[in-house]
Amino acid sequence: MFCFSTATKSISWGHESCHNTNLPPPPTCRHWLRLGRCPSLQAGLCAFSHNEDARGSAATNLDKKRYGGRRNYVRNQHKNSVLRIFLMQTYGLDYLNRQDGVIIDAAGGKGELAWELINLSGVKECVVVDPRQLNLSLVQTKWKKGLFEPKRTGPVFSKWYPACEDGCKMRQSKTPRHIRCFLDGEACLDFMNAASDEDISRAEEWYQNQLIRAKEMSWTSKGLTHEDGTSYKEEEEDTNNDEKLPSETLETTESEIGCAQEARKVLQKSHLIVGLHCDQAAGEIVDFAAAKKIPWCVVPCCVYSEMFSCRKLSDGTRVTSYDHLVQWLQERDPRAKVETLDMEGKNKVVYTLP
């Protein structure tokens, strides 16, 4: 079969044997024009043209600013799916879905990556560790509309949705469990490894304080803000421009793990820890994984060079740029590898294998 454009500019299909060389060439793939890439082409299933000169020529929103700030708009709304597919390709479903294991989604924000791993990839359990309340309204709406069913994803993408079947929208999706606290590597390790009655009592008190601390935090488009107004920022900016992010519209408190003993069990069972644009938690993820001797996978984002002024590369250079941060993470573990994900923005992934 081949694809061709009719006189009315509509697209039609015909037999290869009936192909007339006098017909005009097929139009350029719209994904190739807008995004500069075409997943269907990689699978050999796109009949449109992919001229290198037209690649990304119709890109939009490149000059649009986010939240009225100085950062350019980046098309990375599918970043959770991109990382999820990378995890499936790199670690395999057998490892991700270990019966005695738990994947930790550190600084998981809304919880969408953990939700996708559970509901789309079929992972048994992925727990979010983040002080923010989960907000799964977007992915749950897509689920109810059947957008993850094979008949909607098509032959190219359906293999990355092994837990979805036609009609899956009729069943309820699962909400990932949630440890609502900051991932402080050393403190979390002490909490997890508490053995004596005194240590366990201290660990339970620490965990309850973490839950209280998390609820006393507020968030802006520029980062974390305490109730007293102080905030962590990567660069000095006019504080009058801070915008409060919209409050969560979906209550997910039922998924929160309020029992310290249960939270300790989750951390003890963890066999992989991941972080997607995890901000300040990038280094903590590596420290936690190294202490537990488990693999880790981090897609770093902001550098926070002032907050982490002690970070230095092996040659003594201070970590002040994104490339420095990627190199610094790689130097933390001699087994670490670096690859580039198929998305815009901060797309370097640093990871280790089991």
Report on this structure.
With 354 residues, the protein is α/β, with parallel strands linked by helices. The chain is 31% helix and 13% strand. It contains eleven helices and eleven strands. The strands form three sheets. Strands 5-4-3-8-9-11-10 form a seven-stranded mixed beta sheet, sandwiched between helices.
Pick out its properties.
354 residues; globular; 7-stranded mixed β-sheet; alpha/beta; 11 strands; 11 helices
The end-to-end span amounts to 44 Å
Number of strands: 11
> Would you identify the regions where 5 or more consecutive residues have pLDDT less than 50?
4-9, 225-242, 244-252
**Strand arrangement, major sheet:** 5-4-3-8-9-11-10
Overall morphology: globular
Could you say which structural class the secondary elements and strand pairing correspond to?
alpha/beta
Share of helical residues: 25-40%
The proportion of residues in beta strands is 5-15%
In sequence order, what are the helices and strands, one letter per element? EEHHHEHEHHEHHEEHEHEHEE
Q: What is the number of helices? A: 11
Radius of gyration: 23 Å
Sheet bearing the most strands, described? 7 strands, mixed
